[in-house]
Amino acid sequence: MNREPSDDRICLLCAESQVPNGITRNGRFFCQTCDREWILEKRKIPRIGKNILSSQEKTEFLLDNLSLFNSSMGLEDLMQRFTELISVRLKRDKVAVFITNLELGEIRLVYYSSQKRTLQRAINRIALDYDLSYGVLIESMAKGEPCFYKFTDQKHPFYEFYSKLTGTKSQLVIPILYANTAVGLLTIDYEEEDYSDFLEDQEILQLVVGQFAVSLRNSLLFSKSENQSKNFQSLHTAALTLSQLYLNNHDEMIRMILLTLSGIVESSFTYLIESPKESSKTKIFKLYRDLENYQIHTETQMMETNSIEPILQMKETTVMNPSDQSIFQSMGIKGKESMIFPIILENGTRCVFVLTKQDSRFPNDEIEALNAFISLARITMENSNLYQNLSNKERLEKEIEIAKEIQSTLLPRKAPEAEGFSFGGFMVPARGIGGDYYDFILSPNRNELFICIGDVSGKGVAAGLVMATVRTILHSLVRVKDSPWEILNDINNYLYSNYKEAITPRFMSMILLRWNLITGEVLFSGAGHGNFYHYHAGSNSLSVIETEGVILGIKPDISLFRNESKLKFDSGDTILLYTDGVTEALNTNEVQFGEKQLQSSFLSCIQLEPKNILERIYAELKEFVKEQEQHDDITMVAVRKI
Predict the structure, then answer these.
(1) Is the pTM of this model over 0.70?
(2) pLDDT in tens, 67-126
(3) Secondary structure of residue 56 in the 3-state scheme
(4) I need a surface site. Which of 321, 438, 610, 621 has the fewest CB within 10 A?
(5) Does residue 456 contact residue 466 with C-beta atoms inside 8 Å?
(6) Nearest to residue 429, comparing CAs of 636, 635, 637?
């Protein structure tokens, strides 16, 4: 065997100048140092700028990865740490991780890392379809093998778009395999088409991607089980709320059931077909959720029972393609997949829930959660039927008792656990059941806190129902929207569309704040609620913050009243929010407590804890009104940055 001098050849994998064991076709050989088939380069030293790791650097990279995988972290943290490690160690700027879901037939981009934050945000918003448009990803996943390809070889216009956006000329795709099944994909973008530049990346990443697959799968399983636990806790709470609040308001009960169902699985169309025994007419309750614009529309429709008899005859849960059902088309249902859940109540009423997704399918865990909630909803509907048989007096007494109890559970039971902040809040209803509402909603990452206070028009059970509905919608919206104004706009759309034709229309004023707990910045919007106070500890001064906007539920479009403002909170600062039940409380001489008195009371006890501040203000208010009857709900919220 002829050997060439050892000083004019170098292995691109280990960067060692070694004589090969034997040169084969196209210049490929087995290196004596690393014992792998590699590209033989004729040069004495590596080319400047190539990403060749020394043995020590490879060892450090592997140890860093082992340390990463042995730690306990959530899915997002795992993605961020892993891609950052690749970026630092392999000096690669554009790294992406995809998750594959074979059950639903989809590939989902879960993280894209780049030093250019604007580019990172833009790529993370791209949605990929699971089809042949992205054949390279599908092929690599199906074969379980890495793939390096040039964008110029791809015909689909997506690659030209992606190349212009990122500067990418070629890409390395490595499947993330667990038990020989692809759970995800790792991609590295290159700004050139040189094959020699990706080889070491592929070799070193294949050593760690197996361990990453285990960590990724465990993180996904943990997230799934955590979501299931939260779902069932939410289902229990929602069912309890339905059973206790909506027993005497059948249509509102159905709307809340549909709203909850659509929120569990993010279905676009959620219907209930309700056919009383021996009736020729069937009532259809419809809820359409625009997932892109976060809009909710509801309506009801009457149809001849015999025209939808095939659906009413169904006995068990069924999966359907809505485009194959002419009945669904007549009802306005369209999409990719529908789930049918039939139930029969004890009074003989046949009910069928129809949930439809426009662009995806229902995974097994969502179907399980839906079955559980529909079972609870059935109990609520049965209880509602029984409740209708109570005497008017018994029904009214029971309604007030139950509504008062459930309303107290809907208000925050304890202050949120946000380090560096102190909270206080309470409500005293005027008639047992109040229309005032306040809440603290802490984001899952504990970095943001939404604070709100509101006042529903009217008193008693009707106002309490509106308050409970708004709470449900608000808790759903803060998870998908950052802007307080956009959230208020969606609440307005719901109130107007559902109560515009009611005998007594329902309106609501509100202030909504989004507090960034890291920077201390507060973004707030108003909906005709008035003022709140900001105490500045540094200057020992009080600012009256005037909110704007229009009361929710009066107009179909409130875009002309858009308002969003910012505040900066420093250490020791305190805010006080209140409803008009505080300032408009009357004494025996028909004199109002007023804002001046409230400001004075607030400043006089500013050194106390927020909850004690509210107690002191309420004590002074009670002393002011003495034995005068309370005519409006009294609600206050105080928050301090420690």
Answers:
(1) no
(2) 665 545 577 778 888 888 888 778 888 898 888 776 566 677 888 888 888 888 888 776
(3) helix
(4) 321
(5) yes
(6) 635
